[in-house]
Structure formats: structure tokens, C-alpha cells
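Human: Not sure, check this?
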Amino acid sequence: MLDRATKRTRVAIVFPADPRELGRSRVERSRLSQIAEAFVQHNVEIVSAPFSDEFASEVEALLSTVDGALVWFNPVEAGRNRSVLNAVLRSVASKGVLVSAHPDAIDKMGTKEVLYRTRGMAWGCDTRRYGSLHALRSELPETLKSGPRVLKQLRGQSGDGVWKVKATSNQLLRVRHAKRDCVEQQMTFDEFVDLCSPYFSAAGAMIDQSFQTRSDGMIRCYVVEAQVKGFGVQAVNALYPAAPGMSESDAPQPGPRLYFPSTRPDLQRLKQRLKGAWVPEMCRILGMCVADLPILWDADFLYGPKDKDGADTYVLCEINVSSVFPFPPSALEPLIIQTLQRIGQEPLRCE
């Protein structure tokens, strides 16, 4: 906890480690080195906490000695889920250590389930939930009559387990995986259902949203607690089709994500809606308060149809909590300030 001799706050940075590299993995040699350096500039002692399931008990002992733990660890890392890590984080959090994204918060807002639970909000669209493989098999054919759909496994990253599905006139489906460099392919309905079977074994459900046809790309809002502190803008979404008459291999691929401060003029309307209306409404629906929100998280939006006044609308595509990196430089200082404030304040209570 707080080092009383030096009065320095101790913050651990938790990141994936190869068990064969135990003892040699240091945050200063990782992609998170600039974050560590920035905390040091605020007189914070940074503790490297490389994690792998094999040495979970050692990491738990280490985290029990710090004031806070900032965690960058994907939902699936090296073929493993976060169950062991989450048990460690829950344990140290119960002892008073700040955890940047508590596993309970991840369960509530960091899976695709949030798309279904908040489907009635202004950021929602036609969204279904298939709670079993049988439900997918029996309900999807009727849903596909309304047009192409996007089906998503509950936990994943980088487009893994996200599929655009469209019925064709010859009783086949055209499907495209959202992982980079994947192309549209044709298969039978039963083949697609079989392909989805592992998602139900792992998480028990899939989420189904209507496909958003605009090709304007994706906007990522970077949020520190409840304040938008930056944007990432990426041209073309991963499931946008090839131009008419072109081969599916010629479908445009998403460009690089470009980062902007929260002052970007054309995104102020989205920023104000997220801060002023959508985050509070999401918290009410999920049974959370501001103090429960992760220190750093992001929300991905696709462009929806223009409203009656010709203004843009936005459809929530995903919320990322587990490993939000990289992020705009404008979010780093707020991240540090929020971390130190949470460590130094009394626990907040939901009203």
C-alpha cells in the first residue's frame, strides 16, 4: 500500500507475460512503457506485474502490496481466458487495492451482452440474443428476412467471432468474418450454425444486430471514468462489402485508426450525448454508478441512418474494457489524475 517512508503511491501495471520469460518481463520493455514513464513523472512508483496463469499466486502477493493495479489483458490471451486473472483481481480488490477495471464491471459492460441490454437506448438498433445453439438455429432464418445481420460472440477481440450474415436467393448464406483480411464466403445455413457452436460452449450466447449500411467507418470514444478524453477514427468498417461488380476479395479493408483529442469539432455532438445522456442511462440499466466505471474504457460507434434533420446518428458496436491500448495522448493525463484520485478518496456509494 502507500509507502509511508517516501510517501509515494505504488501502482502496478499488469500485462501478459510468457511464463518462460518470468523474471525478464518488465513494463519498461513493453508497449506500455510510456504510460509507466508518465506515472513516474507524477512521483508514482511503478511496479511491473507480468501475468500468466502459471504464477498467479506470486502476482496476487505482489498486487497485495500496491495501492492500485492498472490492467491491460485481453479477454482471450494466448488461447486462455481471464478467469484466473479475474480471481486474482477480485481478491486484491477486496483488500482495498484499486483495480482499473474490476472484473464485475467487465462482466456488466465489457461483453457484447451490453448491446442487448441497452438496445432500447438511442445508441441501440434491432438487436437479438440467442441463448443457445437451438435458438440460433430456429430464430435466425426469420430474422435474416429483414436483411443482413451481424452476429457476435460475447467475448473476444480484433473481430474474432463477429460475422456478417446475409441470406441469398438460392438457400445459401453469404458470410464474412470481421477479422482482418477475411473475405466473404458462401455456405449452407447448417454449416454456419456448426461454425458458431464453439461460441455457445465458451460463453453461452451470441448477439445479433442489424447490419449498418453506411461506409463512413467507425468512431472510438476513449472515456476516462465518465468523461470523453479522445477519439479514434477508422475509415471503413471491417464488414463493408465490395463495390457492385467487384470480387469479394476487393472489399475495402479498414484503414489505420487515427487518434484525435476530445476537442475534435465534428464529434462534439457525439461527445455530449455520451457524457450527458448515454453513460448515465447505461449505468442505470446495468445497475452501476460512476464509481463502478473502469478508469479507462472505450465505446465503438458505427454511423446509423441520418435523422429527419439530416444529422448523423450513432449505433453502439462494442464497448472495450479489458485492454484499452493504444489510446490518444490526450487521455493519458486524465488517466493518471483519475487513478490518483480514486486511490486517495473514500469509496463512493451508489445513491
About this structure: Residues 346-351 have pLDDT under 50 and may be disordered. The chain has three domains: 9-99, 109-122+214-326, 127-210.
